[in-house]
Design goal:
rod-shaped; alpha+beta
Length: 414
């Protein structure tokens, strides 16, 4: 055997082993690349699964929210469209928004005049902000929403501020930070605004949901206004335009029942024009009719939208004040008395004369528990005011509290 043969065999073995090693390394790198690619794919799949799980969780949350809303929606719609009180609408809207979003703040504004909003209901109001606060259209986020009549959130406000003046935030007239705002619009007119701050529950269709509630609120406000207008037309005194005695007795009974159910105060005012028979005898019945119409007009100007003024007979007038205690009722009655006392009534002859009125005030539960007792208590206070010199307002003294039949006077000038 040649001496170089073993060397050739050994060299061939080495080359064979090197080839095997090279193939093994190549295969290893290929496997490592496959493992890396698979790891990337697994990571992507894991991310997609997490996103899918989150989407499923969000969908379940949305479905739960929508299911809850759909459950309460018929009841909300029923209350909004059957409750004739304008004051009852904002709390119902606030309750609906609270169930939907669980916000830290809920604010309900209603339009006053042409371009001003007034806060009529609020939850979680910041210090220094109270009911009755006013915002003009275009001021802050709430005023901007009312002016532009479109639902807006934080992103909308940020885009608007950059578009307007490059500001980072829209300046607020009140210390109110809101995240979601929707206008209540009917036939191109803004009736009010709903605003939320820091909602705990978010929805992918936040703006659509709050807009739905705002549309329900606008519909309720319009229905309430139309219902009251129709009701008043059907029960209006032909001379003064105020409610009739029959209408007042019917509404007073309903309001007493509602006040007792909701544990809310209610008060009644009775007014009588002083020396009206002498006025008729002196100036004639036509002048007397004009006097009655003007007194009714002045009275209507001084009462609120939910108050019910009526001509009770002859020269006697009654005003029902829902959600009003005796102290506030006395202030309203005195305001009416001063307004009539300061007015000059023009006679057909061109001469101007002054007239005055006397009034009595009574409150539910304190002075009476039904229509007859309440009106009788106010009537007794009225006659006490006349006996005390007229041109004054007297409050009924409760027989239930004092055991007395007499009424007591408020210190008004005569």
């Amino acid at each position: 055997m040649p001496s170089y043969l073993p060397w050739i065999m050994w060299s061939g073995g080495i080359l064979f082993l090197l080839c095997l090693w090279s193939l093994a390394r190549r295969q290893q790198r290929r496997l490592q690349a496959v493992v890396r690619d698979q790891a990337v794919r697994n990571g992507e799949i894991s991310r997609l699964l997490k996103e899918q799980e989150q989407a499923v969780a969000d969908a379940r949350s949305d479905n739960k929210m929508l299911s809850g809303f759909l459950v309460v929606l018929p009841d909300i719609v029923r209350h909004l469209n059957t409750n004739s009180s304008r004051r009852a609408i904002p709390p119902l809207l606030s309750s609906c928004l609270d169930q939907l979003f669980e916000p830290a703040q809920v604010l309900v504004f209603l339009t006053q005049g042409e371009n001003e909003l007034m806060l009529v209901h609020g939850k979680g109001l910041p210090e220094g902000v109270e009911r009755g606060a006013r915002i003009r259209f275009g001021q802050g986020r709430i005023g901007l929403t009312a002016d532009q009549q479109r639902t807006m959130d934080r992103d909308s406000f940020l885009s608007e501020s950059r578009f307007r003046r490059g500001e980072s935030e829209i300046r607020e007239p009140l210390a109110i930070a809101v995240d979601l705002v929707a206008p209540m619009v009917n036939e191109g007119r803004t009736l009010g605004v709903l605003a939320l701050g820091n909602p705990a529950r978010r929805h992918r269709d936040d703006k659509r949901m709050i807009k739905l509630v705002a549309d329900l609120g606008a519909l309720a406000l319009v229905n309430q206004r139309m219902f009251n207008a129709l009701e008043l037309t059907a029960n209006r005194d032909s001379l003064t335009g105020l409610g009739t005695k029959r209408f007042l007795n019917m509404k007073l009974g309903e309001l007493i029942h509602r006040s007792e159910q909701n544990h809310e105060p209610l008060s009644v005012l009775i007014f009588d024009i002083d020396h009206f028979k002498r006025f008729n005898d002196t100036h004639g019945h036509l002048a007397g009719d004009e006097c009655l119409k003007k007194v009714a007009s002045l009275m209507r100007e001084q009462v609120r939208a939910d108050d019910i003024p009526a001509r009770y007979g002859g020269e006697e007038f009654v005003v029902v004040l829902p959600s009003t205690n005796k102290e506030d009722a006395l202030r309203i009655a005195e305001k009416i008395r001063r307004g009539i006392e300061s007015h000059t009534f023009d006679l057909p002859t061109g001469r101007g004369v002054r007239v005055t009125i006397s009034g009595g005030v009574a409150s539910l539960s304190v002075d009476g528990s039904n229509t007859q007792e309440l009106l009788s208590a106010a009537d007794r206070a009225l006659y006490t005011a006349k006996e005390a010199g007229r041109n004054r307002v007297m409050a009924s003294r409760s027989r239930y509290l004092s055991g007395e039949e007499a009424d007591t006077a408020t210190p008004q000038s005569s």
